Amino acid sequence: MNIIELKNISLKYEDKSILDDISMTIQNNSVHVILGPSGAGKSTILKVILGLLQVDDGEVIIDEKEINSLNEQQVLNLRRKMGFVFQGNALFDSLTVAENTAYFLSYFTNKNEEQINQKVKEILSFVNLSGSEDLYPDELSGGMKKRLAIARALATDPQIILFDEPTTGLDPINSKAILNLIKKLQGAGTTSVIVTHILNDAIMIGDTLTVINEGKVVISGSVIEILQSSDRFIKDFFYEINDNMFLSNKIKSECYERV
After folding, report:
1. Strand, coil or helix: 98
2. Tens digits of per-residue pLDDT, 38-82?
3. Which helix (H) or strand (E) holds 174?
4. 154/85 Cα distance (integer angstroms)
5. Residue 130 and residue 134: Cα distance in Å, rounded?
6. Which of 10, 104, 140, 199 is the Cys-Cys partner for 144 at CB 3.0 to 4.6 Å?
7. d(CA 175, CA 256)
8. Mean pLDDT across the chain, nearest whole number?
């Protein structure tokens, strides 16, 4: 089942084309990675999915609803089914870990204080932050901050979570922890859409990869399909992977095992 469909969407800003006839299908309970060079339009796609930007042409269908045909309240209701993890985390520095996690629960649910506290406890356990409830963001490591940002996004039980560069700036150990957490989310039934420029992360975690350049889709498919593409841009973009035969063969072997 497709939970997100972008059908021939285009978006311009001051006569400059940002997205050009982009089509993309994201399946329910999958990890879909969007890749491309800086300025390609990757983060813009996330904003379109959230309904923060309205396209000039095409259709944006979320959970079988075409969002451009919805009124403001309907868009807000749909947006509550989605969580967003910002590249810079966007945590509230004056709130504790527990308070950051509970923030949207207080506004968007009818849970009482006891229920909120129990939910926060469950979420922090899920993201491996138990015991840090009373700490403030400036007391956390980079990896802990990212896990807190994910915890806050999880608070309202979203069907979809959008990640903007989730491992940028993290060391390899913390990056691996975040990738493992995203796969854990998938195991719990969540659909993840990830924008990243880190090729190894994308290849190791993505069920489907969509590569865009200059606002256009170059290719979309499995890791194996993309690594075997003869397209010159794709070969150049993935040159580090393709030039490393050991890594390339290892990735392909792991992809076959996943299938």
Report:
1. helix
2. 888 899 999 999 988 999 999 999 989 999 888 888 888 888 889
3. helix 172-187
4. 10
5. 10
6. 140
7. 23
8. 88
